[in-house]
């Protein structure tokens, strides 16, 4: 479903990502780990067609993100951390509808999917209220609904539970599990090791833009002779291997 082949991204003299390769199959949940500035967000933005790789190739559903970005975007739902991408003066419904229009959906389908998503995320009580007065959790749910209105097969989350209360964070974690059951491919970055252990089929660990590990947690535990993921992570990024 997603193939990342030797991608490099430079900003001037700074190399944010360095010859990174990994893949994600249909229905697979990949956890992306790395310290701040490791290149996680840059990598997700390249997959999402927001940034172009300086070198290398990314395929989503067999389509190249540089040569066929419009087709790739139709397959992807995106949520980048605190960047909800919502318009405060619009209601939740209007925000969702606006993005539905950007994806080329007709009004009837937008209405149907908006109602379905609102029910799924318990948003009906504030669906027709302006986003500007929402709590962070309410905005996060609206942003997720907006990212799913076109029914994407791939979902990219950049630290989706960052700054959320326990209830809202658990909604996100449950959602990722549901995505897996629905056969969607999910890549999400996180600093919370417990949610990575709970949700992921495989992990990709990046340090200073370079791949440190790509595989299952069980293999990672066996290689390091411990199931303490925090310890393994700190040894990897601390030692700079």
Automatic annotation (TrEMBL):
Tell me one Pfam family matched here. ABC_tran
For molecular function, the Gene Ontology terms on record are:
ATP binding
Q: Which residues form the ABC transporter domain?
A: 2-233
SUPFAM superfamilies per the record?
Answer: P-loop containing nucleoside triphosphate hydrolases (SSF52540)
Lineage, top-rank taxon, reads Bacteria
Annotated InterPro entries: AAA+_ATPase, ABC_transporter-like_ATP-bd, ABC_transporter_ATP-binding, P-loop_NTPase
Q: Which UniProt keywords apply?
A: ATP-binding, Nucleotide-binding, Transport
PANTHER family given for it?
ABC TRANSPORTER ATP-BINDING PROTEIN (PTHR42711), ABC TRANSPORTER ATP-BINDING PROTEIN NATA (PTHR42711:SF5)
Q: Give the family per the record.
A: Belongs to the ABC transporter superfamily.
- In its UniProt entry, what is this protein called? ATP-binding cassette domain-containing protein
């Amino acid at each position: 479903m997603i193939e990342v082949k030797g991608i490099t991204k430079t900003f001037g003299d700074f190399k944010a990502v360095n010859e990174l390769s990994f893949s994600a199959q249909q229905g697979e949940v990949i956890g992306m780990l790395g310290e701040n500035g490791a290149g996680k967000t840059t990598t997700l933005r390249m997959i999402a067609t927001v940034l172009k790789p300086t070198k290398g190739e990314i395929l989503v559903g067999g389509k190249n993100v540089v040569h066929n970005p419009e087709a790739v975007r139709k397959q992807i739902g995106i949520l980048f951390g605190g960047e909800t991408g919502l318009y405060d003066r619009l209601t939740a419904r209007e925000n969702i509808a606006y993005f539905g229009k950007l994806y080329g959906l007709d009004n009837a389908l937008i209405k149907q999917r908006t109602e379905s998503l609102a029910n799924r995320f318990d948003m009906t009580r504030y669906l027709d209220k302006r986003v500007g007065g929402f709590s962070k959790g309410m905005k996060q749910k609206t942003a997720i609904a907006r990212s799913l209105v076109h029914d994407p097969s791939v979902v990219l989350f950049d630290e989706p539970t960052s700054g959320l209360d326990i209830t809202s964070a658990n909604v996100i974690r449950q959602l990722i599990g549901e995505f897996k059951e629905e056969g969607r491919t999910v890549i999400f970055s996180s600093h919370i090791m417990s949610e990575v252990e709970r949700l992921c089929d495989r992990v990709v660990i990046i340090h200073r833009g370079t791949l440190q590990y790509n595989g299952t947690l069980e293999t990672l535990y066996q290689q390091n002779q411990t199931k303490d993921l925090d310890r393994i992570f700190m040894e990897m990024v601390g030692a700079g291997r």
